[in-house]
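Hi P.,

Sorry for the delay on this. The queue was packed all week, but I finally got your sequence through. Input first:
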Amino acid sequence: MPLRISGGEFKGRRIDSPTPGKGIRPTTEKVKLALFSIIGTASVQSSKFLDLYACTGALGIEALSRGAEKAVFVEKLRRNCDLIQKNLNTLSIAGRGVVIKSSVQRFLDISNERFDIVLLDPPFEHDEWEKVMGCLGSGANVSQEGIVIGEHRSQVRLKNKYGNLEMDSTRQYGGSQLSIYRVV
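Then the structure:
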């Protein structure tokens, strides 16, 4: 089932997504529009964007469409990595995207690259929020003016602070919630 890019240079273009199944839950159009509204156009432009639990790469590709300089996609499944690369190639933006086959925790443990915007959109069954947010809160992967946004079940309660990340706000959309953190 193709996904539609909702804004920027590739607005209206479609990218491929995996066959629906266990653990696959594409971000709804409403949540995606809200997410990029929260981040703001000026923040996305020329940013380094980290798409964790990337699956289709739709959110990182949306960021590239809206002017991000670079997007790094971290995904542990080979078939999804291949799909992200195919989507980047289809849009002729492979040079602005880096696809990394890895677990999120392993990537965060070994990477020293800093990102302006970090998005976590794991499967709803994900239960490693404390560990991953603690890692991001250590400051090794988030720039000084960075923003971290997690999309999760509305029943999941994240802490107000993880290291140097402090919760700015939360927004609920049906069964999904966005938790927005900023570096303090």
